[in-house]
Design brief:
Layout (H helix, E strand, L loop, with lengths): L5 H12 L5 H16 L5 H85 L5 H68 L2
């Protein structure tokens, strides 16, 4: 027979003791009652009454064991759910870093557009000093079109940047809410454990 691990011992203890309501004492009482019933020399009515009492104790033990198994399975599912939440948070953080890097690139591009616009404005002022030349007017018109295009590009970049900022803010808020939920659940589990410990000591 293989060695019994600590986890198996703990699980067996939980199955026997249930939720700390004295199921181990019920089992001991059931064993004593069974021994007494086997060795009893009383009337059949007394024996039947004792037999019914043992069935009641056995039903209570089975109910507590079933409830403990349900709690155990629920905790397993809850741990799996927390692992999924943690994985989703990690993915969200990685996605946020990517979006931040993308926003930085867009900011650099917007700065270059602004610099180019300033240069084109300066060049346009120089061109306007020679309004009588036909070729100069054509160049000025082309520069104005390019300037308008650059302005539209800058507006699009500014709009995208504002959208990314809002999305990142929502993402950070979601992460904080998830972290608070995990902390509350962890605190609740600690409170439950602290309430169960005195009950077990009292047995």
């Amino acid at each position: 027979m293989g060695a019994v691990t600590d986890d198996e011992v703990i699980r067996t203890r939980l199955l026997i003791d249930g939720d700390g309501a004295g199921d181990d004492r019920r089992i001991n009482l059931l064993l004593k009652s069974f021994t007494k019933w086997c060795n009893s020399s009383g009337t059949p009515e007394e024996g039947f009454t004792q037999y019914q009492r043992m069935l009641g104790i056995l039903a209570q033990c089975e109910f507590s064991m079933g409830k403990t198994l349900m709690v155990y399975d629920m905790n397993l599912r809850e741990m799996e759910n927390y692992e999924k939440i943690y994985s989703n948070i990690e993915q969200s953080i990685a996605s946020a870093h990517e979006k931040i890097a993308e926003c930085k690139k867009e900011i650099q591009r917007a700065k270059r557009i602004r610099k180019n616009r300033q240069e084109y404005d300066a060049l346009a002022k120089v061109i306007q000093q020679h309004p009588d030349r036909h070729e100069t007017l054509k160049q000025l018109e082309a520069l104005d079109k390019e300037l308008q295009q650059l302005s539209r590009i800058k507006e699009n970049v500014d709009a995208k940047l504002e959208l990314r900022k809002k999305q990142f803010h929502v993402l950070l808020s979601t992460i904080q809410e998830l972290q608070q939920t995990l902390e509350i659940d962890e605190k609740s589990d600690m409170d439950d454990n602290s309430q169960e410990s005195p009950s077990e000591n009292g047995e």
